[in-house]
């Protein structure tokens, strides 16, 4: 399995996983592709295994494809799996404590406002609950801007921290809310012993890329999903 694939799935874990037939299958009742996809453990694995597994669980078959898995990617394409959401992995060192403005209220669990901000992403309450359940399986800190106009999450794993769940209310975008939350979460993580940070961002999200690159994040890897067409 690709090293970054292993890291990402550890920090965004499915409810259930199993390895067989050269694949590592993740299941999380359909909540997010990242937690409901197959990861490559054997480059020669049969694509039919993926199709059968996810169809058997009532889910659309999905595979996360990383650099070095081009042969698998080609077989997936031949079987009608289409590319969805090319994604970049960005990372930075946390050798020194980032300067956070202290404008973020950080808690060990999702607050009411943290959860309310799901509405800004247009997802259903059921989907929001699924994401919270995924995050309950890791050590996470939940940050909400003091204005209530934005939120983010930091998943701590030893000296590594993953930033995820960043959302800014539409009316507050462009006002530095996300930047403040990001800096505060990185400072929190540094205080907890993290010395490296990373995040995943959809490749065509230019606004997010500007924010993260401005905060010192650089591309270290990338992946895309292959989803079976209907």
From TrEMBL:
> Under what name is this protein listed?
GNAT superfamily N-acetyltransferase
- Which source organism? Nocardiopsis metallicus
Name the Gene3D superfamilies on file.
Answer: 3.40.630.30
Q: Does the keyword Transferase apply?
A: yes
Coiled-coil intervals, chain numbering: none
Pfam families per UniProt? Rv0428c_C
The record's listing under InterPro entries reads: Acyl_CoA_acyltransferase (IPR016181), GNAT_dom (IPR000182), Rv0428c-like_C (IPR056935)
Q: Could you give a GO molecular-function term held by this entry? A: acyltransferase activity, transferring groups other than amino-acyl groups
Q: Which UniProt keywords apply?
A: Transferase
N-acetyltransferase domain: which residues? 89-230
Q: Does the keyword Flavoprotein apply?
A: no
